[in-house]
Amino acid sequence: ERLAKLLRKHPDLRNILPITTAKVPIVKFYHVRTGLEGDISLYNRLALHNTRLLALYAAIDRRVKILCYVMKVFAKLYDGDNKPEVIADGWNVYFFDDLKTLPSRWPQYGTNTETVGELWLGLLRFYTEDFDFKEHVVCTRQKARLTTFNKQWTSKYIVIEDPFDLSHNLGAGLSRKMTNFIMKAFINGRTVFGTPVTAFPPEYPRQMEYFFDPQVLTEGEVAPNDRCCRICGKIGHFMKDCPMRRKSRHRHDSERRPDGMRERVDTGEDLPCRHKSEHWRWRDAPEPRCCFLCGSSAHIKKDCQLYRGSQRLFVFSGMLHRKSPVE
After folding, report:
1. pLDDT band per the 50, 70, 90 thresholds, residue 253
2. Most buried in the list 71, 131, 132, 157, measured by CB within 10 Å?
3. Start and end of every CCHC-type domain (predicted)?
4. Looking at the domain assignment, is residue 37 inside a domain?
5. What distance in Å separates the CA atoms of residue 147 and residue 137, rounded to the nearest whole number?
6. What is the pLDDT of residue 234?
7. Are residues 65 and 203 in the same domain?
8. How far apart are the C-alpha atoms of 234 and 181, rounded to whole Å?
């Protein structure tokens, strides 16, 4: 929260979002000048090794960087017994990173000559036609397929093995609705990218907008927010841990605080050590709320047309059941 406060003062940063209740707390932000999104985490050494691993992939083959970028756009929508060890936070984060000797250690190095488009279409085809998400785990550390039985994971949805923390399922936070949403985008993307185009429709000013049209990829649906907080509509915490809930509670407590104490808080003076029964006052500005059903920020759940429609349908069905056969 303190880091988020400091970032909000930076003139080139927007959409500051602290996610403090995640396994690895982060602060997400948007950089206006570059148009890039980023996040900052503290005391997370595994993230450094993940970054080095991705940089190595990109250095081995320039097509990797392009494919990673395409996947980002789409989402907006060592073998052997004696493996060396590099321990970070209790995890073995070793990976072979000697690019000069890599060709002698990897016989298949440089043999793949497919274009970026062929690789991208092959990825979509693999995960929509060949890969069984109920039986297999998305894994980058071995060529052979890894099963959920081997991992003893019981998730019914997409399971992804962390490349370093092998006991961590990166897809554990996915719900059934989000899994269906992702698979629908992959299937529709397989159709769009796999169909030859002789002429692009005039309503698309750029080819990129044709291939990444959300009306086609997700059929106009927005990503489900069933895993978000029901108070503020954001992900990363549950309703009981929502900052907006704490703010309203602290605001109520501050109103009962003596005037002298309240003035000292407003002026930023140091307060004496507080007792357990005393409360701290948060002075952050309240963040906008959104509807839990449709995700709109223009109203909340009780004012949503979907909610009202379901209520009217419930009342109407109740009236039908109360009518007697004679009537």
Report:
1. low
2. 157
3. 229-243, 291-304
4. no
5. 6
6. 67
7. yes
8. 18
pTM listed for this prediction: 0.54
Q: Would you state the structure tokens that stand for residue 272, as one six-digit string? A: 């004496």
- 131 confidence band (pLDDT: 50, 70, 90): very high
In a domain, 233, yes or no: yes
User: Is there a single domain that holds both residue 253 and residue 205?
Assistant: no
Measured at the CA of 25, the angle between CA 241 and CA 87, to 5 degrees, comes to 140
Q: Are residues 166 and 187 in the same domain?
A: yes
Q: Which of 219 and 263 is assigned the larger pLDDT?
A: 219
**What's residue 274's pLDDT?**
42
> How many domains, in total, are found in the chain?
3
Q: Is 99 left (phi over 0), alpha (psi -120 to 50) or beta?
A: alpha
Residue pair 228/176 in contact (Cβ under 8 Å)? The answer is no
Same-domain check for residues 298 and 194: no
What CATH number does the domain containing 81 carry? 1.10.1410.10
- Both tokens of 265, joined, read 């808080």
Question: 3-class SS at 317?
Answer: helix
263: its two tokens:
């003035």
